[in-house]
Structure to design on (129 residues):
C-alpha cells in the first residue's frame, strides 16, 4: 500500500512537472493500477526518448565544436602557407632578376667578342679589295 501511494505521488509529480497531464492527486487515486502503470510506462518512454534526443544533440554539439576547432586550424595553416608562398615568390623574383642580369652580361660579352672578331675581318676584307 505504501508503494502504491508513493507511485501515485510520483506520477502526479511527473504529470504536473511536465504539464502534460494536469491532474490532481485525487484524480490519480481514481485511476486503477493498470491505468497508473500505463501512465508510468508512457512517462518512462518519454523520458527515454528525451534522453536519446539529448544524447543526439550532445553528439551534434561535439561535431560542431570539432568543426569550429578544425576551421581555426585550417585558418592558421592558411596563414602559415601564405608566409611560405610569399617567401617562395620573393626567391623566384630574386632568381629571375639575377637570371636577367646574367643574361644581359652574357649578351654584352658576346657582342664585344663578335665585334672583336668582325673588326679584323672587315679590315682584312677592305685591304684585299
Amino acid at each position: 500500500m505504501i508503494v502504491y501511494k508513493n507511485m501515485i505521488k510520483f506520477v502526479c509529480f511527473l504529470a504536473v512537472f511536465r504539464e502534460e497531464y494536469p491532474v490532481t492527486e485525487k484524480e490519480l487515486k481514481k485511476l486503477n493500477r493498470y491505468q497508473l502503470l500505463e501512465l508510468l510506462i508512457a512517462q518512462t518512454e518519454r523520458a527515454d526518448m528525451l534522453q536519446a534526443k539529448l544524447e543526439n544533440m550532445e553528439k551534434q554539439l561535439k561535431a560542431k565544436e570539432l568543426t569550429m576547432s578544425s576551421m581555426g586550424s585550417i585558418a592558421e595553416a592558411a596563414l602559415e602557407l601564405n608566409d611560405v608562398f610569399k617567401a617562395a615568390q620573393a626567391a623566384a623574383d630574386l632568381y629571375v632578376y639575377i637570371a636577367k642580369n646574367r643574361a644581359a652580361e652574357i649578351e654584352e660579352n658576346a657582342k664585344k667578342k663578335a665585334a672583336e672578331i668582325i673588326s679584323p675581318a672587315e679590315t682584312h676584307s677592305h685591304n684585299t679589295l
Observations:
- The first helix runs from residue 2 to 18.
